[in-house]
């Protein structure tokens, strides 16, 4: 006969010491790294599969959801009602359906048809066949997912081996079977593993739950891993649930030193030899068989049942795992053995009981070892001294074996005493978890749809852009014609620059550059014949907000102060140099050295200037200071200055474009078309002031409510509508208002609006350029959001903010491209050319710093004006140089006029 000692001796290889278990844990940790690492993942035994489950429920989920739960002992169909009025409540109805063995081993199509039949039956019973409900599918097998609702089966496990499924997307197979029936429809939104479902089900009650464990027919675990560690996915921030598929641990031979002949025998007799070797040492599908094979060997070695086996004992699968559970009590042990037609002695029963204990203890301890590896991974990810976490658990072995859970808990706490681990048994199965994941997916899908609907209002079609171009062309004609000039929104202001430098200009010139993001005073020294050698010295001075919006006198006094400081700095006090004044606002000119300000734009609103000649305002200020005198020669718009600066290098430069704080363009128009100026010969530069395009409503059908909000809160409502959809002063504001709208609808920042985000101008346009730069990782977007007081923003929030920025900037660039297409196509028609090539001199912070603005604008231009070959020349020296060159030309012409 055989007593416990003999059994222990006989089965000593199945009793693992803490050291061995710790070694298994370390081995498994290594396997986890292999699975997470891009290069080793393809050959890793433990696949570490991304599940695309990013967040646990946030309490806003609600609705009715169907769930299927396939792969455990029972196939369930469930209806889960999630109520979110105040405290969240969940009601569930479910029905277990049988999956006949021949379907588990038959053709996949029949299997999925059967699933569809069960679903139909369930809907029939509940009388909801006519509803198209969202459905979550718990499919408890190893699957490669690329998104939540697409999942390719890698290999069957447990008792399943249906043909034609491995390598296929199980969602499409299910959709096909449902379609084939044609009598009901569902919206499959998510496929998840049962470990994930269990984690979500338990996470609903305990937000600390970040691990899902199944010890049932099969065994497996999932946990929330840091995105940056999941190398298969290019994301750094946040966490995603990873399905370890630890059942396959050892399939690459890592556990050969621990696997016993019994393990090899059971594997050899299984449906999938060589596969799921770890699972076959642990889970319910194999535990009974392990015991049976041991009893057979011990019997043959005269250690049990007087060495007499029975047909039942020799039959595969005859010793149910359930029997292992009951063996903890002697009485039922005897009953089970008699059930195998054995005639057990009390010793036999005790010995068998001991065998069961050893087998299930090994299972519990092995499970503990791999679980400890997962706990350590999470602790290290959090760099936490002490990890406090919850493990959601389900499965018939864990639930029904009287000692399994206790042994597992005990060994886990022994191996990682520094972790505070709570085991939470799932009461409702993974179906609830699947419904939760579906509810989150549903919420996210609904939110995405709402976001997209709003963002689509800012996406312009080619037809719309062509229409913008057409209307711009129309307004240009109206601006040029004497009759309609007054009413035209695009004023097409003659700028009295008719010729470009011929290289004979020379001398020192002072230039002022006011109206962009910074005020510059420059000294430009031009040497004749030295086109590329104009030397420049400049100083940037700030224009305080209160000066921009104070009185004209204060503003121009401030400008003269800066000039004085500059001359001082240059050691040229008292010098009286010819001055070119870049004044970047709409001015009516009847000659080069006069500029009547029509209206302020951008951030300026100084009083007593509109309607006045800014040259006289400057002269008065110089006179008031009585310190130096200046020879005011020219006032030019920054677009004209930019065209001239670039034209000095490239004579084909006949268009000037500014996309900075404001936006505007100028170009060389045929004198014969400029009805406001006498003469029909040659060309003259026209300052289009296209920023005002739309002030007569030409853009109303392209304007969104965000544009109206930005316009209403600007200091010149109703004015500069085109500019307010394009330029740097406003893009940040458009984004800010979209973010506020999204937040107020709960589509962003969990609906929590920060005070700072309500502040005008807080979302500087420079953020758009930064946020869209490819180099910028999501975390940097988060730090910008933190700066805006949005400290609790998530990854999804960053992704969405980036998208809003790109939609707003793309529209701006396209609108700008459409406007420019109108300009160059007009010039081509002016010159009766089929093909026209021209250079555009361009300046402005937005154009220069935004990573995609220029390319999108150029694409749009190319598309809308295909007969024009346009080269863009970024102005390196600013328009001050251009103003100085125009001054130099004016001086040359004047001095030639005097000879
Ligand atoms: C119940 C879950 C199901 C899972 C099963 C595992 O709802 O998703 O597959 O537990 O335990 P088993 O039924 O295999 O013992
Ligand atoms: C630099 C030019 C200046 C122009 C500015 C526009 O020298 O005349 O006004 O670009 O760009 P912003 O500074 O508004 O971005
Ligand atoms: C499957 C896993 C599943 C586990 C528990 C294993 O055989 O590969 O996907 O989670 O059983 O049901
Ligand atoms: C002004 C233009 C200027 C443009 C770019 C607009 O607000 O009206 O005169 O060219 O900004 O600076």
UniProtKB/TrEMBL annotation:
Q: Where is the Hexokinase C-terminal domain?
A: 210-440, 655-889
Q: What is its EC number?
A: 2.7.1.1
* Signal peptide start-end: none
- Location of the Hexokinase N-terminal domain: 7-204, 452-648
Q: What's an example GO BP annotation here?
A: intracellular glucose homeostasis
Q: Where in the cell is it found?
A: Cytoplasm, Cytosol; Mitochondrion outer membrane
Pathway involvement of the protein, from the record: Carbohydrate degradation; glycolysis; D-glyceraldehyde 3-phosphate and glycerone phosphate from D-glucose: step 1/4; Carbohydrate metabolism; hexose metabolism
**Domain of life according to the entry:** Eukaryota
Quaternary context: Monomer. Interacts with TIGAR; the interaction increases hexokinase activity in a hypoxia- and HIF1A-dependent manner.
Q: What is this protein called?
A: Hexokinase-2
Q: Which organism is it from?
A: Sparus aurata
Lineage, top ranks? Eukaryota, Metazoa, Chordata, Craniata, Vertebrata
Gene transcribed to yield this protein: hk2
